[in-house]
Amino acid sequence: MCTQALTLDSSYIKALLRRAQANEKIDTSTSLTESLEDYKKLKREAKDAYTQRECQRAERELPNKIKEKTEKEIWSFNR
Predict the structure, then answer these.
(1) Alpha-carbon distances, residue 17 vs 62, 70, 71, 76 (angstroms)
(2) pTM of the full predicted structure?
(3) pLDDT more than 90, % of the chain
(4) Is the pLDDT of residue 47 over 90?
(5) SS3 50
(6) Could you say which of 38, 52, 54, 69 has the lowest number of CB atoms within 10 Å?
């Protein structure tokens, strides 16, 4: 639903935040990467303090989570 909303209005901040949060909860390397990209876009566009804090947290935490997930996924694929 968030992606559909963003197709209609690419500046819909709430939909972008919800999609970033949902992708983060899916917790695969691909979804985490997509989540981080959404957070980076949000950081440029959003003005409210909550969203900015979420973006800062994501930029701090997600790169390491992406790396770990990628390594686990490669390891389990090669078993």
Answers:
(1) 15, 23, 27, 31
(2) 0.90
(3) 84
(4) yes
(5) helix
(6) 52
